[in-house]
Amino acid sequence: xxxxxxxxxxTTHGLLSDFDRHYPKELVYWDSLEWQLFTWLNxxxxxxNEVEHVRTQVSAILKFAPRLFPYTNPRLQLLFAKLFTxxxxxxxxxxxxxxxxxxxxxxxxxxxGAHDLIAxxxxxxxxxxxHRSTGHSSALVxxxxxxxxxxxxxxxxxxxxxxxxxxxxxxxxxxxxxxxIAFECLHIAHPEIGLIxxxxxxxxxxxxxxxxxxxxxxxxxxPKELAVGDTNNLVILYxxxxxxxxxxxxxxxxxxxxxxxxxxxxxxxxxxxxxHQGKESPYSVSKTIKEQVEWRQSITKVLAIxxxxxxWASFDTGRYQKR
Length: 323
Description:
The protein is mainly α. It has a single domain (15-316), classed as Farnesyl Diphosphate Synthase. Helix content is 68%, strand content 0%. It contains 15 helices and no strands. It has helices spanning 15-21, 30-44, 50-59, 64-68, 74-95, 101-111, 118-129, 139-153, 166-176, 179-189, 193-196, 199-228, 234-241, 246-277, 289-316. Helix 2 (30-44) crosses helix 5. It is globular and about 60 Å long. It comes from Mongoliitalea lutea.
């Protein structure tokens, strides 16, 4: 049954909408991946009973990474799915933890204690790095540490009056949401993107896509986060700090989302024209069909991270539905 996403955008007929329409809805390797993932979770002792098994199926956290990386080979899809599943599990445990879950989890990891969820993350990252052809092998480890450190700060980050600013929130949430980890996984899975898109092009795309992912997720997840007392959500923060109605806070975040969508659409069009004019491109002014196809394929793989999040929230997960 379709879950109507609160973050759905009324789109124009721009380049971004065109890419959205062509996002692949079918997960080619899913049946095999699902079996392997549940087998792995059982071996890790992360599914203690049938209730947890059903809850994992309903939340569809195993399906999250395959949605973000639909053009990636099944071996890497499996590893990415393991990594993001662990991040989801830790995030959920943090929501229901009375103390500072992330600080305790990190200390437990340093001591090599039982029930350490960070160690399996490190093991999965080591396996992912075997597929790396470019970049630094320590990048994912550093991003995981950044993710954990941001988690330690979540409960107090916006406590100070006047500390909440839109861009500062996006910058912090980019660290604490795992968005940076997703883009590093993309870089590992598809290093050819770095040969097609200039560093400046790629950086601008990631910046705008990160904003869209964060805002979309905040709109979809605020009922769940209100229920567990998680305030690291722009809807909730606007309501609390601006002392406005929930409906007004939602409207404000939707306006941000609409503005970021338009900004990304404009950026894509600008990059499209620059590519065909030969600027910010390793190619000559005259573009061959092969070069045009490679450019579109690269953009498609980058945008799939956002469209995958959007599709997962709208069609796959029961995580954000009111119980």
